[in-house]
Amino acid sequence: MNHKKDIKIVTLSGPSGAGKTRLKEMFLAFPRKYQIIESYTTRKKRGGENGQQSEYVFVSGNTFIQMVEKGHFAWHIQYDGEYYGTLKKSLENGLLSNKISVMILVPDMVATLREQIKALGGVPEKQIESFYISAPEKDLKERMQRRGDSTRSIETRLLLIPLQEKTREELGLITIENPNDKKPSLVFQEMVQTFLNSPQV
Questions:
Q1: What pairs with residue 13 in β-bridges?
Q2: pTM, 2 dp
């Protein structure tokens, strides 16, 4: 894969159940090219997260608060009752690495990422490629049910979609459709083509 030389970070945003984790795993299947930028969270592990390379480090609420107080995070948010945050050091390492770093972010955090990269001396418009993964609501609901989300959690997450779509438009995120009837490999191919110099993956 011959990438545009300046790309350092790829972000994956979108509603719950859009397939962000699956696409992240497809990037990481090429470990010489891609790496994960981990986020810290207080949420519980989902089924299957024990054995795979997760985008999350799972910590207790007390540990998370201590890290906030010590100024470790570039940002932190609360989402669906749990805390999420990304370390300043992780972003610095991403800029210095010869690999492309992959992150899963809620849409409004893309703006914060751009600000942080600029503060670190980077050029966000050249070094960050940001995607919004979308799917029909019925597909999102089916995927969340399949992974064991509660009815209340599913309803709460679906209510967030209009705001996420508004943020996607405001920030100019690249929309990639990922419905149930589309092979994940084709979705991945479509994403990668946007930041390749060569048309061949």
A1: 132
A2: 0.84
